[in-house]
Amino acid sequence: MFSPPLALASLSGEADADWARTGAPFAGCAFLGGIAIDERSRTAARELVERDRNEFLPADPFAFVDRQLEALESVPMRPAVNVRTTTAEALVPAARVCRDREALLEINAHCRQDELCAVGCGERLLADTDRLRSYVETATETGATTGVKVRAEVPGVDLPTLASELEDAGAAFVHVDAMDSESVIADIVAETGLYVIANNGVRDEPTVREYADHGADAVSVGRPSDNPIVLERVRNAVNSHLGLERGSVPR
């Protein structure tokens, strides 16, 4: 999927091409975004901005994605884009851009802000398996390598079962915010053949080792993704516990 098996996780309003380029000496992949791509999710993003959250709100989100990916053409890492949407249709142009730029498309079923959940995207998708499956099917039909970012510890959501459904719909990877339930990584690995990226609290050798022991294929760094000291420490741990050869193919 990418090498080394260390990703930079998206940070709303901050994770752009410049951010990815800064982390490129350490990571094999960077998830740009999250980017709202349909009108209802964009309305929710505007409401988030009104309460002082950083959000990407370009006039044309698909042209923005294309420009950002173009800016990373010469950077030696696999680009990826995290998108929010309340409709499957909006995924088609986003997926085509990702396909043409050899980028991963990540459907956001993770964000839990009230504004996003109120319009039916982000974390709300975790409890709507049929709709999330349709999103994955729509995106993969374009030829884009598609995955989903999910969150553990959501009441009523069985992540291993959901991950199996997503794999059946055509997903290639799942990016798991494990919260305080790190063992969910092992459960998903046991249930599916998906490429599993473990997220949450990845800061040092012990956290990388724990996710590796649970069978993760890769780990991702969130908030400290702009901190080279943390990234170097995590990269060294990834080299030790995940290895550059383990299921990772350079772009």
Gyration radius, in Å: 16 Å
Number of strands: 8
Overall mean pLDDT: 95
Number of helices: 10
Shape: globular
Instruction: State the low-pLDDT regions, or none.
Output: 245-251
Structural class per helix/strand content?
A: alpha/beta
Q: What is the element string, with H for helices and E for strands?
A: EHEHHEHEHHEHEHEHEH
Widest sheet, order of strands: 1-2-3-4-5-6-7-8
User: How would a textbook summarize the main sheet?
Assistant: 8 strands, parallel, barrel
User: Helix amount, in percent?
Assistant: 25-40%
Give the DSSP E fraction (strand runs of 2 or more residues).
15-25%
Distance between the termini: 8 Å
How does this model look, in words?
The protein has 251 residues and is α/β, with parallel strands linked by helices. Helices cover 39% and strands 17% of the residues. An eight-stranded parallel β-barrel has the order 1-2-3-4-5-6-7-8, surrounded by nine helices. Helix 3 (61-70) packs parallel to helix 4 (91-100), helix 4 (91-100) packs across helix 6 and helix 9 (205-213) runs parallel beside helix 10. The protein is globular, with a radius of gyration of 16 Å. The relative contact order is 0.16. Residues 245-251 have low confidence and may be disordered.
